[in-house]
Amino acid sequence: MLNEAKANRTEVALVLVDIDHFKKVNDTHGHIAGDQILKVAAELLRSNIRQENPVYRLGGEEFLILMNHLSRDPNKKMDSSEFHVAIYQVMERIRKSFATRELAAGTIQVPVTLSCGITFYAPTMNKSLDELMTEADQALYASKRNGRNLISVWPYI
Fold this sequence. Notes:
Elements: H1 2-8, E1 12-19, H2 22-29, H3 31-47, E2 55-59, E3 62-67, H4 80-99, E4 102-105, E5 108-111, E6 114-121, H5 129-145, E7 151-153
Parallel strand pairs: 6-7
Antiparallel strand pairs: 1-3, 1-6, 2-3, 4-5
């Protein structure tokens, strides 16, 4: 996706998503229920992101989402600020969606919130995927430090 963005001169957003206090879910309800909650959370993330934008589970309760430009009209390219706002709005909608419901694992209902960290790749940048992951990770941890159930954007942390 980064190579495609460079070739097409478009941006890509890297979003790290972490389920807040997930250890408590496993400790309270067991690992089987925790695994079910992870599957429900992954499906909810996936269903709220366009099909061409991949959602990966990095491990534990952390996910990576890669998003390219979000214009519904493929002939219209957003400028950088429009793209950044659109990505933030999508992630805010998802964050609120999680915060206002409980996820089911069998008969168990578990409240779940998300902390998110966002960074952007532009074709004019000379950054590696590792550098971008570090930026998104630092933004994610800013969300956690500032109370969780938040979205932080690199470098505004």
